[in-house]
Every structure is written in C-alpha cells, then in structure tokens.
Amino acid sequence: MSIDKIIASLPDKTEADRKKMRANAERWLTTGTPAHKADARKLLDALDAAVMAEREKLNDLLSKMPMSVRVAEAFRKRPPTRGEENVIRALLENPHATSNELSKAYGHDSQIWQMHFGNMAKAREADLWPAEPFATRDANFYCGILADFDPDGSRFTMKPEAVLGFAALGIAARPAKTSGDA
Q1: What is the pLDDT of residues 38-54, one digit of tens each?
Q2: Which one-letter DSSP state was computed for residue 153?
Q3: Tag placement on the chain: N or C end, fewer CB within 10 Å?
Q4: Cα dist from 113 to 36, 61, 136, 177, whole Å
Q5: 116-162 pLDDT tens trace
Q6: Is the confidence at residue 61, as pLDDT, over 80?
Q7: CA separation for the pair 173, 44 (Å, rounded)
Q8: CA 29/CA 26 separation, integer angstroms
Q9: Closest CA to 155 of 104, 105, 99
Q10: Among candidates 101, 143, 141, 148, which has minimal Cα distance to 118?
Q11: DSSP readout, 103-122?
C-alpha cells in the first residue's frame, strides 16, 4: 500500500492503530531505506496534523460547553484512577484547606496532594482549559485548573464548576461522620 493511501486512511484508524503506525514510522526513520525514511517522515507529519486537527475540533466543541460539562467530559474521556478520585475527594471534603491538610486527608504526611492534584489536572488540561502561570516562578499552576487558591496564598478550594462536573460523575464529598457513626 502506498504511503498516500495509508495517510488517507488515518481518519478511520483507532488510537491504537495510529500508535502502531507512529511506532513503525519512527522505526523506519532509523532503520529504513531512503524511500522508507521519506515515507516515514510524511506519515509522521500526517499523524501530527491529524492530532492537531482533531484537537482543534475538540477545543472548538469544548469552548462552547459550560465549564462543568467540560470537567465531566474530560474525566469521562480519561476516567480518574482510584488515587485521583481520592485526591479529588480530599479537596471536596476539605475546602479552604492547605496543601499539608489536604495531604493528610489524602493519607500522606508530606505535601504530596498538591503534586498529585496538579499532575491529574495537567494530564487533562487540553480537554479543560489552560493553566495560568505561577506568579512567583516560571511554571504553570496546574492545580488552578480545577481549584481556586485563596488570596492569602495557602488554601485550596475546588472551583464551583469542577464540583458540578465531578458530581455529574458521581464524585462528591462523602457525608461527614457524626459521633453516632461507627
């Protein structure tokens, strides 16, 4: 099959198919004949262009959705792991908490909560909205995609639209235990 026919078939390929095609093309770049190398470059460029076109189409669709729907869709597309769900619940159940407090609620002694929450949001940034840059360092504040940071600079609260999005997925704060609960 010619490389042009392969490229023309990209819209019909699954993510797994495209991943395999990319791996083969990358292998051809290093081990193939000059003709294979040229075809490999052409295929890699077409795969990159397809990803960008699909991303633009998705971003156009997402930009028209309410933020709560975007949260729900991003986490439907890439469901949270058990650990991510625990990180989410830690904040839902402890609004206005520090990273230390959230880490303890998450079951850790270190400030690991903020790293896990930020990585979770970063992994879905393209389906949500861009992270704002940190005011104090050359990096993006990925926690800020889903959480507000209080003006005093030490406490986190889940954004209201994220609360609604997670609720649509059945992820909400668990009822607080009372003294009568076992």
Answers
A1: 999 999 999 989 888 88
A2: S
A3: C
A4: 47, 31, 20, 22
A5: 999 999 999 988 888 888 777 778 889 999 999 887 768 999 999 99
A6: no
A7: 44
A8: 5
A9: 99
A10: 143
A11: HHHHT-SSSHHHHHHHHHHH
